[in-house]
Design goal:
Two copies of one chain form a homodimer. With 119 residues, the first copy, chain A, is mainly alpha-helical. Chain A contains five helices and no strands. At the A-B interface, α3 and α5 of A face α3 and α5 of B. Chain A binds a DNA duplex (30 and 30 nucleotides) through α2.
Chain lengths: 119, 119
DNA sequence: GTATCAGATTAAGTTTACTTTAAGTCAATG
DNA sequence: CATTGACTTAAAGTAAACTTAATCTGATAC
């Protein structure tokens, strides 16, 4: 799979895909002889994982550490801890989101009452 | 209320409070004769609102527009739309968060199974 | 009365996460 | 066989949201 196909499939620009690889957010992608990237299933799965994490707002730094540990096939405890830490953050974020959505619901209702009367 | 009291109350640095005011994210705060800010209840409520929105990830730009409209006491329709737009974004974000938390749950479980056996 | 400390302003600097630019390679098409 | 278009790298640039630095003012502590 070429980089532009992967780009299309996951909605990530080719620039960003190369950037992710360069900084170690995804492991090195297999290449053809001429140096052109040829994403296999494993590489795609990494892209998919990173896309999921990033669009939830997981930071790049901890992900880089995680990816490096998986590559080196070590640090199982540490890897689990990274996942636990990130999940904790996302849970807190979800809670904050809930609160703010409630507030917005309340405010929007207020406008709903007000607008028909005065318009 | 002084700026440092407000800072403590909401967990926002004084620098950030001044920054927010400067860019119009909160309306001008009342001052004492010597120019020192004296937050009244209204000002505090703005801080509280902005804190809530910002910690949920609502962008500054739309909030500035919203605050300006409220200040000018106009654009009710537009104001409501801003709130609707932001709520829609937060709902989408909440959904993405849910997906990613699920994925993390799954992965963490996997480590939970694996670790006791091999450690 | 002078030192220190909260508060003020303006402008420049920082961080995170990309994005764009510059410059080059290579395969295929007209 | 030149040109088009996708691919490559390295380095510089950008956007959003603060943060820090430099400098100043005025009130209270010793």
């Amino acid at each position: 799979m070429t980089i532009s196909e992967v780009s299309q499939k996951y909605g990530i620009t080719t620039d960003t895909l190369r950037y992710y690889e360069r900084i170690g957010l995804i492991p090195p992608v297999p290449r053809r002889k001429n140096g052109i990237r040829d994403y296999d299933e494993k590489a795609c799965n990494w892209v998919s994982l990173v896309k999921c994490m990033r669009s939830a707002g997981v930071q790049i730094e901890p992900l880089i550490e995680y990816v490096a540990l998986v590559q080196a096939d070590k640090g199982m405890e540490r890897r689990k801890n990274i996942l636990l830490e990130q999940r904790a953050k996302l849970l807190a974020q979800a809670e904050q989101l809930r609160t703010t959505i409630e507030l917005l619901n309340y405010k929007i209702e207020h406008y709903e009452e007000w607008l028909p009367k005065n318009k």
